């Protein structure tokens, strides 16, 4: 992944605040355990749910059961927003990732992701076909990757800042 360049939005930032560096986004995305996934139902109503996700290789990865609402939503519209950060008003960094969710079905990639889920989140998955399976083998989970199309970063505390990162589409 080519490192994007951040652009400060002076209208939503403390005067003179610098754009946050991409290394800050990478640290937040790598360290976060819970994200809020926003999808759109087939009838246009929004759907938001918290879930664990793993940032690696320039994409955020999450999983969902094939019968869950988010999986149904993704069938009709793959555009998503994943949000993480802190509940503090005057400290921390909130990060919003926009992009399209693409199903991951490659066995080698799934095994690498299952290992990361174990290392970072202590969730035990094994790979069964083109999905994760819980160790009890009762629940399959489709895995999706979201390569960012746009990232917004909200620095909270002096200086307050809003930085936008854009990614090439080709």
TrEMBL record:
Gene3D superfamilies listed in its UniProt record: Electron Transport, Fmn-binding Protein, Chain A
Residues making up the signal peptide according to the UniProt record: none
Region (Disordered) location: 1-20
Alphabetically ordered keywords of this record: Oxidoreductase
All copies of domain Pyridoxamine 5'-phosphate oxidase N-terminal, residue ranges: 25-151
Top-level taxon in the UniProt lineage: Bacteria
Keyword Oxidoreductase: yes
Keyword Oxidoreductase (UniProt): yes
Protein known as: Pyridoxamine 5'-phosphate oxidase family protein
Source organism of the structure: Paractinoplanes lichenicola
High-level lineage: Bacteria, Bacillati, Actinomycetota, Actinomycetes, Micromonosporales
């Amino acid at each position: 992944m080519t490192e994007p360049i951040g652009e400060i939005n002076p209208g939503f930032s403390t005067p003179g605040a610098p754009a946050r560096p991409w290394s800050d986004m990478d640290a937040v995305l790598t360290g976060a355990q819970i994200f809020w996934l926003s999808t759109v139902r087939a009838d246009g109503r929004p759907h938001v749910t918290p879930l664990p996700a793993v940032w690696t290789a320039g994409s955020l990865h999450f999983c969902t059961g094939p019968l869950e609402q988010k999986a149904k939503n993704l069938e009709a519209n793959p555009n998503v927003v994943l949000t993480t950060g802190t509940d503090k008003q005057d400290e921390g960094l909130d990060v919003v990732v926009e992009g399209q969710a693409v199903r991951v079905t490659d066995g080698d990639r799934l095994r690498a992701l299952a290992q990361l889920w174990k290392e970072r989140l202590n969730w035990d998955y094994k790979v069964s076909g083109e999905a994760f399976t819980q160790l009890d083998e009762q629940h399959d989970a489709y895995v999706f990757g979201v390569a960012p199309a746009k990232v917004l970063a909200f620095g909270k505390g002096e200086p307050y800042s809003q930085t936008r990162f854009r990614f090439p589409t080709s």
